[in-house]
Amino acid sequence: MLQEKASAVTDDYMTRVQSTDGAPLAPDPSHLGLPTAPITPSGNESDQTIESIKVALHERELWKKFHEAGTEMIITKAGRRMFPSYKVKVTGMNPKTKYILLTDIIPADDHRYKFCDNKWMVAGKAEPAMPGRLYVHPDSPATGAHWMRQLVSFQKLKLTNNHLDPFGHIILNSMHKYQPRLHIVKADENNAFGSKNTAYCTHVFHETAFISVTSYQNHKITQLKIENNPFAKGFRGSEEGELRVSRLQGKDYPVISKSMVRQRLISSHGHLGGKLGAGVLTGHPQVLSSYQYDAGIPLSNSDHQDALSSPFPQSRDPGLLYHCFKHRDNTMHLDLGCKRPYLETSAGVSEEHYFRSASSYESPLLSHPYCSDTIGSREACMYGGMETEPASGTGDADELNPPPPLNCNVWASMQPYPRYSVQTVDSVTYQPFTAHFPNAATVAPGVPHPSVSIASRPQPNLGVYNPASVQQALPIVPHSSSSSSSSSSPTVPGLRDRTLYSRKSGSPLRPHRDFSAYPSQSTMSIREASYQYQMGLSSTGTHWTDS
DNA sequence: TCCCCTGGCACATTTGAATCGC
DNA sequence: AGCGATTCAAATGTGCCAGGGG
């Protein structure tokens, strides 16, 4: 099923970078600035490191509560944070190896939804996908020790429906279903964001899937948000207050008091726990799945049954999905169609592989409970270090490179996604990505770049940041249409011009933010600053490779 | 008319500077 | 003068809601 991507690179690369539809993604490596000479895989160790990385979703139970009710995330023009926020606990990293952690949010299917009769229903075909933007954790790159020391939080990630958003927020369409993903990329010592033979892995927690909205549709979600989000405490109020709110909302649903909500949560939690437990115990494997996007619309490939009784028309396996380039050819297809099950168990998935990399995520109930309380207290520390000083006070403060400044001149064209595919498998996905991208221009020709947003405070004294490296670091590569794979290496005309990053010799890759093109950004607060590396969304294809 | 989106509002938390005391 | 604790105001994050547009 998988096919070589950059056939001319190296055998090693060839065996790892493959498209999901069998079409070469980048027939001409020179377009990507890839070395034509064989790359000596120094990567056995790194691969093993990547493979051993485990990620646990923080506050998973809370996510499950929302998922059961049908998670909704408000998107606004100015950008809105996610709640629950995306936080993970990472283990299994090589303490001394540097990694880049980033997230992106991809369409979960190709449908547009509407909330009708107190449930989500398919309302038509999805609109063209928004520019693919990536949110790079502000601490990136940092050593494994740093990432494992505390909870890794992406709480400052913001969602927007502004297609021209200049702040680097992740752009989404309202009333569409999305799936956040976490990518862990091994960074080379000399090239923070890209190096040859570097591997990456992708983690997907299905309970984090959500439907983007401009205003909450499901009152259950509203209540959950109010109950759990500190910033919404003002709406908790008394029973009378709740009655008032419900009345004012003009909803035709029964008023649910705070206490009722609390009780409901408790009961639902138990119910959910039972379901999940059953699902896990019955061996719902982390399913390998794949789906393709055509013009920004994911195409369903197969049917799956959701283990959770999520209000979503079609939900996925409750467990974590692993994107792994080691998936087999008998990769299962992920059906994104609302009328079909989302996941499908793959008999072909190696049990060994599955359990090794997925079991711990699949069921915290079974093996890996995450100590949110313990690690949660560290979050502030991590962010503090990120926004003020790099891991000050820690033994490896010097391990962190200061967050690069953002250059906002790099914007993606508003082209719809060309066809691309995404595979989710039962294990960690990791893929070597070549470095040697002298500059963005080298990569641009054949590789549309999703934007990369680094939510950290821009710092002076920056070198240059090479978006190409980031792009390479991600499993997102242009995926030619099934019919014209390699030859069709999509191009992003404007990318070269937009890309203002270049690598400064001898210095770590750091972006330089340039807001000149966006006057409105002058009013942007420092806190709001984020680095945006736009990869033409378009582009985009998420490409899962096999090593 | 319905659905969706926008902007302003009130309320709460977070953040950082200013102040104070030791 | 230096450090830590406390205070306070501004910034920021929420959901609510009226109004507008398609």
Quick rundown:
The chain has 547 residues and is an alpha+beta fold. It has helices at 11-16, 29-32, 43-52, 60-69, 144-149, 219-228, 239-249, 258-281, 351-357, 359-362, 372-387, 440-443, 467-473, 495-498; strands spanning 3-4, 18-19, 54-57, 72-74, 80-81, 87-91, 98-116, 119-125, 133-136, 142-143, 152-153, 158-160, 170-171, 176-187, 195-198, 200-205, 210-213, 289-294, 297-299, 320-323, 420-424, 451-454, 531-532. The model is unreliable at 1-47, 239-309, 315-450 and 454-547 (pLDDT under 50).
Describe the structure.
The protein has 547 residues and is an alpha+beta fold. The chain is built from 14 helices and 23 strands. Strand 7 and strand 8 form a beta hairpin. The strands form 5 sheets. Strands 4, 7, 8, 9, 10, 14, 16, 17, 20, 22 and 23 form an 11-stranded mixed β-sheet that branches. A 3-stranded antiparallel β-sheet has the order 3-6-11. The protein binds a DNA duplex (22 and 22 nucleotides) through strand 5, helix 6 and helix 7.
